[in-house]
Amino acid sequence: MTVPDPKVFLTSIFNAAVAAADPERTIRDHLPAKPRGRTIVIGAGKGSAQMAAAFEKVWDGPIEGLVVTRYGYGAKCERIEIIEAAHPVPDAAGLEASRRLLEKVQGLTADDLVMALISGGGSALLPSPAAGLTLADEIAVNEALLASGAPIAAMNTIRKHLSTIKGGRLAAAAWPAKVVSLVVSDIPGDNPALVASGPTVPDTGSREDALASISAYGMKLPDAVMAHIQSPAADAPDPDDERFARNEVHLIASAGVSLEAAAVEARRQGIEAVILSDAVEGEAREVGGVHAAIAREVATRNRPFQKPVLILSGGETTVTLRAKGKGGRNSEFLLAFAIGINRVEGIHALAADTDGIDGSENNAGAFADGSTVSRMRAAGVDAKAMLAGNNAWTAFNAVGDLFVPGPTGTNVNDLRAILVR
Description:
InterPro entries: GK-like_C_sf, GK_N_sf, MOFRL, MOFRL_assoc_dom, MOFRL_protein. It comes from Mesorhizobium salmacidum. The chain is of the alpha/beta class and 421 residues long. The chain contains 16 helices and 12 strands.
């Protein structure tokens, strides 16, 4: 089958993946029984405002609540207050949101219900430094984590040991109320305790695990932070703590479900689809090189998959910052990919974050094909130099290949879609 416009096709694949994580559809399927007492809605993440709006539509009892999302990601709610704060580096608005969320769950009873709407991005949106630490310390930690190249699971294990709200502490504060967490996962492996550093879902990751990651990735953290994380005061609540005994956790959307939906949409349009994995991790440029090698093999030798085919993968790569360019993990992946398929015909790719934002700019990712590198050269841009300088945004902007869908209202991590015609 001939695909008339690869960008249109790949955009339709992205849209299908995002639609599969639509909060109204997924929340409706995971509603608990109504409580005898109050229903309090709390939440954090880049999809939390849309989750709150969806919850208001499907819950027919009285509710009150508060959720925090990224600037520009708000949604209209009648009964749930929406606060916007900074991501990926925390700010004072997030600090105030954390304080108010902890306040919101104080003084509840066993008859009350707390609905926690959690999605990716909540780690940065919920700064709440442990005793003796400051917002500046938490910002320094976040910047070090983002530059380290550490996988998201390691980052969030560190974060939860420096917080008064992460690692299950928000749910512990709500006790004896029952807490039901509805989680949209952006974590490879879909461990709900790692999404947003698990404010309502404790896990077994220890201080020793956090310290091992700090050492392994060569992180330089403030002295006060290191002193705290080396002390028993940093220990997070244990999952077996009786305060969590009645709680429920439901994973309502994930990368795996969205990739399956993307594959179904491709087949509906007459293109066979294969899913490599929904949990790809590693350095973005290296993962881009591997994906390029697979695409080249299909394009030139018709193996290991028969063309035409759509090759899909999900997960969350990382970027070790070597310079101060503009970009994000998806655009960096795709620039390495473009270099790897340079001058190979019939390959078209989209790499994008399902929340609509790849890095600090307004694009979710970018498009690339076998002509990308030569078009960049014609525009006065050296693709390899841009990759070396972590400047993928600038490279794709020069050729008009940025992908800008706007905020999507969900977040199930990255989508990589490679069409080989």
